[in-house]
Amino acid sequence: MAAAGAGRVSAEAGEAPEALGPGPVPCALSVNGREVRIEIEPRVTLLRALRHYSDYTGPKEICDRGACGGCTVLLDGKPVASCMMLALDAQGRPITTVEGLARDGKLHPVQEAFKTCDAYQCGYCTPGMLLSTVALLKENPAPSLDEIKRGLEGNLCRCAAYNHIFDAVQMAAKKMSASPAK
Amino acid sequence: MPDVLTTPAYRWVGHNPPRKESLEKVTGSAKYLDDLKFEGCLHGKTVRSTVPHGRIKKISFEPGVPWDEFTVVTARDIPGKNVVSLIELDQPFLADGLVRHMAEPVVLLAHPDKGMAEKAVKRVHIEYEELPAILTIEESLAGGNIQYGKDNIFKKYHIQKGDPESVWPKADVVIEGEYWTGPQEQLYIEPQGVVAVASPTGGVTVWGSMQCPFYVHKGLKPLFNLPDDRVRVIYTVTGGGFGGKEEYPTLPAGHAALLSWKAGGRPVKIVYDRMEDMWATTKRHPCKTRVKAAFTKDGKLLALKVDATMDGGAYVTLSTVVLSRGTLHAFGPYACDHVVIDTRAVFTNSPPYGAFRGFGAPQTIFPLELHLHRAACELGIEPHELRRRNLLHQGDRMATGQVMQEETGLEGLMWKAMDESKYLEKTKAYREHNRSSTRIKKGVALALFFHGAGFTGSGEVFLDSKAGLELTRDGAVRILSANTEIGQGSFTTHSQIVAEELRIPYEMVEVAVPDTAVVPNSGPTVASRTCMVVGELLRRAASDLKEVLVKSGALAGNGHTPSEFRAAAGKYLQRFGELKVYSKYKPPPDVSWDDKTYTGSAYAAYAWACYVADLEIDMATYQAQMKDFVAVQEVGRVIHPVIAAGQIEGGVAQAIGWALYEDVALKQGVMQNCQLTNYILPTTADTPPIRVFFYENPYQNGPFGAKGLGELPMDGPAPAIAAAVAFALGDRIIPRIPILPETILDAIS
């Protein structure tokens, strides 16, 4: 079973560290604006909590080492590799998965652009690629080609739809700057 | 947008409708295998061998693990034959007594808790009596340790045209070289995954990530001694294949089914983690090739001799056919009167090498094209000019005796590629630059090549494929085919073809899930055959379906609106209940092949191409970096230009990886760098602009003139890149790939 040392240790100043686990503990996540309450062993990563303990299968387990970007979700609006953090550490912080991008049946402009530009082939890296793009455009609403390449360097696409993806990012950037609601 | 150099005269063909699966893929709602939840599912794991060759002495289960909670399967539990039915019957599902490579499956475990299953793998101990292993092609052919047949050779081919031996003494120049292409991991981004439900009463049902449901079907029947209709294989949305999900999925499918069978029919899921996937599954065959070529001093190719050896690994799997395709692409698109090609695939104690985009052709095109670059340098002729003087034209005979019935158009493709890449200006400017710059060296070079579409030789006749269409209850049309959507856009292009033939909107065509209980066997999704061969079966089925509706009086024969078609379909279904129309493969006329002499029409259709690679080498780090890439090809009618361009770009990028980055580090015959942190793929930053241009010379036996194109882009980049590296290094040929910084350092020091 999981080593006791894998439990989360409270780091607040002055408090005695309190080890959690190794058995299941409650965990409350805020996913796409919804509260998700699950029971998990403290060692469970955010990726596995989303995929196996709730129904968010959008983020993918591809390398499980933070090297491919396939498990990317937004945490506090910033992209993180959900395979590289514990679910317990994500408690109380807003999480966006690919399932949370479309609103009221309307695609996010980044999704729309990926669809229009055929910016995917097999689609398995696409959830991560979409979220990295959303984060990139939030930081930099009009990225140059080089900035796009650097911004998405951590997201591997073996089908290598890269050139289509660059087109999609530029298309989404234009659309989003034209209607700044997003 | 890709440049297509004809104007399409069709409503759907040649246009770019959104992919059939686009919404699911951009919203994250597409359910891949590991996204599917099965009630009461067990998680299966595979205990694998840790020696390359040995006799199993003892299997023990470490105390302290609640083994009674596990389902455990060994070779003894197999109800039918312990053999993977493919070309030869030499590979077991589970090693029985003898292991012949590292990572060979020996014991299967399943447990309701995935973590428990993962941890238990290391608690199963297998003791071996180790036996001497063969780890290289040279050791295999040395003859001291024979483990397959009488000489370790899985298969040999010989093609002979004329008599090269008589030419060598008379030629002005004879140039020889030896080349090496390394293994390459397919690295489909979704790992191998299957779920099986199996029991003596219910039969076997498998869901999985795969290219070829009927391969799995064929593999499972003897494993359980079950007839056709008791085994069912269902495709799930598949996150890439590139050949890696051609033959391999039969193994995990069999394993999951064996576990489920023993666990009383509970569902069992096996999903490999990345490490296991890279460690245990197939890779591109490594290949060593010697090329000898004779020229006149003005560059006429007088004779060509190619001798290639592929490492097949420990079981035959697809090596014989990979070798065949390699053999039939070894002579390139050149006219030459004296050619001899000798090839062989040999046994080693490595995990079997397998299908990977290009299927042997990239391994033989690389040495030939790089050799021609070398010859051009030695003869003092520009590389494009040397090619031009030897190109295959209408009426010429290939080494197999196949007469080119039409103009290949290669010279035009070459000029177009040179124009678009500014090849001539660049060769001049880069030579100038390289004389003065010590830090950055620049290189530009080209490669010419073809790729035969469809199964080799009489393969399509043996496949005997069948595809069909049915009317749906709401008056639309559903495609019935076993061909899978693995990212290449086949559901979309097939729908376009059917919509075009039936003159109905693309939106009125749906695609049935490839499920062996529902669709006919339209053959595997491989060999650049899905659009060309299966697409044509569907076009003919559509034509027949229309005829049935017209003959029944439901549809007017002289054109219809979508609502008229719907009404006609409704009327027909009301009267007759259902309409399913199938068509079967018919070989094109004038195409014949002799397997004994290896002569005839190896392929009914070829795609032709010229690619130009432009790169820089930083002489401080020795890293080669792509700067620009131009891909010009003739692929018959382009059904969906955006998808087609995506195929070319993707193949080029994978070939850039093979040429410059992807190094499979082997130890004891098995990959050591089994992570995405140490097996380096091209990223956004490594992928240059890839500029794609299509010429269309419609092929009369393809749907609306289409030929195959999926594998073509894997063929040309590596030799163009290696030649551009040679250019940058002042005509110093590095005859092996991948060309890593270390490789360049070694070559120049």
Key terms:
heterodimer, A: 182 residues, alpha+beta, Ubiquitin-like (UB roll), DNA polymerase, domain 1, 2 domains, 5-stranded mixed β-sheet, 5 strands, disordered N terminus, B: 749 residues, Aldehyde Oxidoreductase, domain 4, 3 domains, 7-stranded mixed β-sheet, 6-stranded mixed β-sheet, 20 helices, 29 strands, 29% helix, 24% strand
Task: Give a quick precis of the structure.
The complex is a heterodimer of chains A (182) and B (749). By secondary structure, chain A is of the alpha+beta class.
* Integer count of domains of chain B: 3
Separation of the first and last Cα atoms of chain B: 43 Å
Which band does the percent of strand residues of chain A land in? 5-15%
Low-confidence stretches of chain B: none
**Poorly predicted regions of chain A:** 1-12
- Major beta sheet, strand line-up of chain B: 4-6-2-13-10-11-12
Identify the CATH architecture of the largest domain in chain B: 2-Layer Sandwich
Query: How would you characterize the largest beta sheet of chain B?
Result: 7 strands, mixed
CATH class (first level) name of the largest domain in chain A:
Alpha Beta
The tally of strands of chain B reads 29
User: Measured on Cα atoms, how large is the radius of gyration of chain A?
Assistant: 18 Å
Which class best fits the helix and strand makeup of chain A? alpha+beta
The separation of the N and C termini of chain A measures 45 Å
Radius of gyration of chain B: 26 Å
The CATH topology of the largest domain in chain A is Ubiquitin-like (UB roll)
